[in-house]
Design brief:
Number of helices: 24
Strand order of the largest sheet: 3-2-4-9-8-5-6-7
Protein name: histone deacetylase
Shape: elongated
Number of strands: 22
CATH superfamily of the largest domain: Histone deacetylase domain
Distance between the termini: 43 Å
CATH class of the largest domain: Alpha Beta
Bound molecules: zinc ion
Enzyme class: hydrolase
Radius of gyration: 27 Å
Structural class: alpha/beta
InterPro entries: HDACs, His_deacetylse_dom, His_deacetylse_dom_sf, Ureohydrolase_dom_sf
Keywords: Chromatin regulator, Hydrolase, Metal-binding, Nucleus, Repressor, Transcription, Transcription regulation, Zinc
Number of domains: 2
Largest sheet: 8 strands, parallel
Helix content: 25-40%
GO cellular component, one term: histone deacetylase complex
Length: 731
């Protein structure tokens, strides 16, 4: 049986423990805070709370494990109940959105699809339809849940806008902020917050809501919401999200700082694109203080809708950031002085059940003006100042309040360097000198983005065995601190285990995803390749491989010939001694032919091979210590779309670029090779090309012969030809 799995995962996270020592570093302006309002305020406060079990009906077909699971909202509801929060709030009934209200945001075709998708007539087609979208699953409960989620945000927003409530929280799913006018994506079917905003503006003018601030603090960019209001100055859309040079989901330029809106909406779209993971409370506070709050003051919104995803929360398995419940409480509290405190929170992402429950609890207490104590101790990243200055510069023409330089003293104080990537200095074959690797640079992704071949990751298959394993590996929650003093401690607890969150480890997730690994060098000989899986070495190798943690053999082996050039670069390798090693030119050439032996393995194993190929098993870095995948589902999605991606985490390795070579049986064919800049250096002669040593040559020949591709003589001629060609223009 095959089941579908969806794309989504944190980009390779970094070794957070390396700088956890900085936890004791206290930012002077971030001190513990108490909120104790006058008693009569409490009496007057009316905070709405909406939860409906029917939104749990949307779940994966056949019960596959998925981060966006019904337990997310149950965990929040249970936590709030355990603290008696509903008793202090106005509990509202869920309502289904009306089509005419949804139609302010979505196309009629899209509405029709979501309306009918759960009906019987779609039973046989539902899976196929879901697989056409990016990261979407659908079942018999999806339609109802989608209508309830959108309608419930409308319900809370209307009551807050009217003044029946001071503020409110809609605990809804499926989430909404990725859903575009004509497309479901990223676990989102209808764009709940955009629909509620459009409802207030277009359906209820009598409520006097003319200007809406949408604050999207989900760790992913709110691409759908941005698109809906991109030219509309009635909505100021603010999104703070991981961007990682455009590689973090949903990937591309939409979440970039320069996407500021257009037409009448120019200046009303604000993106804060984090350059890397691990951003925490202090980074978010700085963005609030130096971008969002000054602009909100100038904009003076009539109501604030928060796209409240909690996947930037500490311990989230997808987000890789470190916002504590206290951090969220401060972010929310800073918004409460606008719009007479009219704030509507709508749940978006957030996949660590304990973290999201604690974070929503913290926010509920803020809305209720109850005490929430905390402190933040980690300093701001230097890159955060860079992002803030870039965004301020971009927007200062629209928001004069930003047209002042931030004081140098602020920029220089209390910042920390960007988080370290996995550090390694050599590849399978050792580098000749450090200076050389330091010159390696990342190729322009646009250069390698040829045709836009999209393989939705929902098509990736998990077989039954792996599915069982996935279930078996489900672990107990970690994380999330409800008290601030625990936060730093939690971070230390978390970091080494950051992969074991929310019931998932990256290994358990990726062990269920199959890919084809295309080999063109010594790995074409299966016994040599198996060293990377089972560990050990074959004749001619001077060092042993550690093997993958999953030692199961490839499920299948196939051969292909591709229009890429095989070349032999470097002149010495640690594993093989004197002589060059094989690379595949990432560029295709019309007259080029390279043989590929392609193994069907899991994405977990592919990561372990990638790790070993780049000799990440240096010093104390071990496979067991590989806290994050080098290539997760999100990165895979990007590679598949863009054909090639140099991995920042592997930039000093020899096989740092992952290439997508097409599909076989619906699964992506991937290989790893040198970067485009290395090819340039081969061409210029800065790095020698060199014939392979005899033992290395033998492995290629053995592979080609045993794979029945060539005779021994033909194989020798093929390798010699590739090694001897000096026509670099064809490299
Ligand atoms: Zn998210």
């Amino acid at each position: 049986m095959h089941i579908h799995f969806l794309s989504w995962s944190a980009k390779a996270q970094t070794l957070s423990r390396l700088f956890l020592g900085l936890c004791s570093f206290r930012s002077p302006d971030l001190s513990p805070r108490l909120m104790a309002p006058p008693p009569d305020d409490i009496r007057r406060l009316r905070v709405g709370l909406l939860y409906d079990e029917r939104m749990c009906l949307h779940t994966t077909p056949d019960g596959e494990i998925h981060p966006e699971c019904p337990d997310r909202i149950r965990a929040i509801w249970n936590k709030l109940n355990s603290e008696g929060i509903p008793q202090r709030c106005i509990v509202l009934d869920a309502k289904k959105a009306k089509d005419k209200h949804i139609a302010h945001v979505h196309t009629l075709n899209h509405i029709k699809l979501i309306k009918n998708i759960s009906s019987k007539e779609f039973d046989s087609r539902r899976q196929r339809i879901a697989s056409k979208f990016n990261s979407i699953y659908l079942n018999q409960g999806s339609s109802e849940a989608a209508y309830l989620a959108a309608g419930s945000v409308i319900e809370v927003a209307e009551k807050v806008a009217k003044g029946d409530l001071n503020s409110g929280i809609a605990i809804v799913r499926p989430p909404g902020h990725h859903a575009e006018p004509d497309e479901a994506m990223g676990f989102c079917l209808f764009n709940n917050v955009a629909i509620a905003a459009s409802f207030l503006l277009n359906e209820k003018p009598e409520l006097g809501i003319r200007k809406i601030l949408i604050v999207d603090w989900d760790v992913h960019h709110g691409n759908g919401t941005q698109k809906v209001f991109y030219d509309d100055p009635r909505v100021l859309f603010f999104s703070v999200h991981r961007f990682d040079s455009g590689s973090f989901y949903p990937a591309g330029d939409d979440g970039a700082y320069f996407m500021i809106g257009e037409g009448a909406g120019a200046g009303y779209n604000i993106n804060i694109p984090w350059e890397h993971g691990q951003c925490g409370d202090a980074d978010y506070f700085a963005v609030w203080d130096h971008v969002l709050i000054p602009i909100a003051e100038a904009y003076n919104p009539d109501i604030i809708l928060v796209s409240a995803g909690f996947d930037a929360a500490i311990g989230d398995p997808l987000g890789g950031c470190c916002v504590t419940p206290y951090g969220y409480s401060v972010l929310l509290e800073k918004l409460m002085r606008f719009a007479q405190g009219k704030i509507v929170m709508a749940l978006e992402g957030g996949y660590n059940l304990k973290s999201i429950a604690n974070s929503v609890l913290a926010c509920a207490k803020v809305l209720l003006h109850e005490e929430y104590v905390g402190s933040t101790q980690t300093p701001i990243f230097e890159s955060t100042w860079h992002v803030i200055e870039t965004v301020r510069h971009e927007l200062k023409g629209y928001w004069p309040v930003l047209n002042v330089e931030l004081p140098q003293s602020l920029l220089l104080s209390n910042s920390r360097p960007r988080p370290p990537e996995v550090i390694y200095s050599s590849s399978e074959s050792d580098v000749e000198n450090d200076e050389e690797v330091s010159t390696a640079h990342i190729i322009n992704n646009e250069e390698s983005a040829e045709d836009n071949l999209i393989l939705p990751l929902s098509k990736l298959k998990i077989d039954e065995d792996n599915h069982e394993k996935l279930h078996a590996s489900k672990q107990v929650q970690i994380v999330g601190s409800s008290t601030p003093s625990e936060a730093c401690h939690d971070a230390q607890e978390l970091a080494p285990n950051n992969t074991a969150l929310c019931g998932f480890t990256w290994r358990s997730l990726l062990s269920g995803v199959e890919v084809w690994y295309a080999t063109y060098g010594s790995n074409m000989w299966k016994p040599r390749f198996l060293c990377y899986i089972e560990g050990g070495k074959v004749d001619g190798m001077s060092t042993r491989c550690c093997g993958s943690l999953d030692k199961s053999s490839p499920k299948q082996t196939i051969w292909k010939v591709v229009p890429h050039r095989l070349l032999f670069g470097r002149s010495y390798t640690r594993t093989w001694g004197e002589g060059g090693v094989a690379f595949l030119n990432p560029e295709r050439g019309t007259s080029d032919r390279a043989y590929l032996c392609i193994y069907r393995i899991t994405l977990e194993q592919f990561n372990d091979v990638l790790f070993q190929e780049n000799s990440l098993h240096q010093e104390d870095a071990t496979l067991q210590g590989l806290e994050s995948p080098l290539l997760d589902l999100g990165i895979l999605d990007y590679v598949v779309k863009n054909k090639s991606l140099p991995l920042e985490t592997l930039k000093n390795g020899w096989y740092s670029t992952v290439l997508f070579l097409g599909k076989e049986d619906e699964l992506p064919i991937l290989t790893m090779t040198c970067s485009a800049s290395d090819v340039e250096r081969f061409k210029s002669g800065k790095v020698p090309t060199s014939a392979p040593s005899e033992p290395y040559m033998n492995t290629l020949v053995n592979g080609l012969v045993e794979g029945k591709q060539l005779t021994k003589e033909e194989a020798i001629a093929y390798v010699n030809d590739a090694a001897s060609r000096r026509d670099y223009k064809y490299i």
